Task: structure prediction
Amino acid sequence: MNYKLKHCFLLVILVVVFGLIASGQTIENYKKSLAILSKSQTAMGVNNNPILIAAKGTIYNLGHYETPEKTKELNLQETYGYFAKEKVAYLYSEMQNRGNTYKRASVSKFDSLYERGYYARELARGTSQDFNFETARALPTEILRLAYQNRKSLRYLGEQSPYHLISFSYSANQSTTLYINQQTHLLEKVETLGYSPIYGDVSFETVYKDFTDKNGLKIPSTRMDYESGKLERELTYSEPRFDLKPDTSNLKIKWVPEQFKKKLTEPVSTKEQFEFSAISPTLDLVKIISQNNKMLIAKFTDYIALFEVPQGIDLNLQLMDELKIRYPDRPLRYLFVTHHHPDHAGGIRAYATLPVTFVTTQGNKDYFDKLLITQHSVGSARLMNTEPIRMKMDFIPINGKKKFKDKANEVVGYEIGINTSHTNEHIAYYFPKSKILWTGDLLFFDQKETVYPAGARGKSIYDLIVAKKLVVDKIYTSWPLHGQKEFGTIAFLKKLTTP
Result:
């Protein structure tokens, strides 16, 4: 190998190695900063109920005075409102200057903002990004919430005794540094980079002091804001209130448009929509509106089984909550999947710490073992816990079958993957008592009964029914939800598979 070739080969190796190191540093750095943030949230308290808190003190106003950089102490009173479920933030402020009272009022809903400034006569409408940061910075528990909402941007910056320093970005060009006490895990300082048309690049700092416990939340007694090291305002907090709604009876916002005002009290839901319906005495169909997908619940004597677990950690966590309500005396004990594709099995991580048995095929074991230990903190609204994995696996033999039954119900899994042309391993589930066959996404029963050739997929199901002499009244698919009939029949399947 000549020198130039060796040199190029070495450069390629270095690029690959350092690329892998950088990638590892990114995820490890994120995990470390997230762990610090989580500890701080635990120490400070997390509250999703409404909070209204007032503060009063002094603003050191840099104005048009007799000498350069002279400031004047002005009395300031502010009220902050946080309504997490409605995605509403509120600020009302009164500033005293030369015998006059100047008022500012702002309210945001999601990404919309209505504001009237101290010296403004007109109502202004804008985006809420900077305002939401301003209000969040007023209360350390809220700035931690904002950091968690933007957790994908988290970075660990190092230590500066006695603090851990982590940063996050709440907008494309604005980074915020959090100073979290290494011993108490309390957030004691927030720092951002800003710009002054007079002083140029400046730093803005907010310092919180003398925390007290209020309703499980650590609330500072005092807050001080600094601009480039100079004290800009100092405020003392009053007792918070937790029993309010974001409406005109509690907030001074009569001037906002009526349509916007009505929306303020509406909760902002990010929940999935599930539709449950009984398709037999022992089987319930679950339609997932957002995913154009379906799942199946099988009711046994003292437990339930879930068929298909599509991707989406929050979707599956929400479904688990729903199952506990709908089937309070029957815990989830089994998960069955037809095959490994994400819209059928991508959500198993959500169930990893439950005492459930996951039924699949042996060839998919390594893949599912990998999914069970993945971290989903970036994409999930709920951090995955650190409990040990309790899920067990059971396997349907290739080209074979396995039966699961008790006095109330029975299901037989048939492995038919080699015949489907879809996946190497695929399971169809037959319920003898209900005479229902669950097939995954191998078939499509058009609403208009248009006959589309079903190919190897459809033939694999038809051949299974004939070969095993299954008595089937209804054939259900898990995908798609829209555009096809609720179920198919053997007679129609025969049309789809006849040359």
Summary: Residues 35-264 form a domain with the outer membrane lipoprotein receptor (LolB), chain A fold (CATH 2.50.20.10). The chain is about 25% helix and 35% strand. Residues 14-23 have pLDDT under 50 and may be disordered.
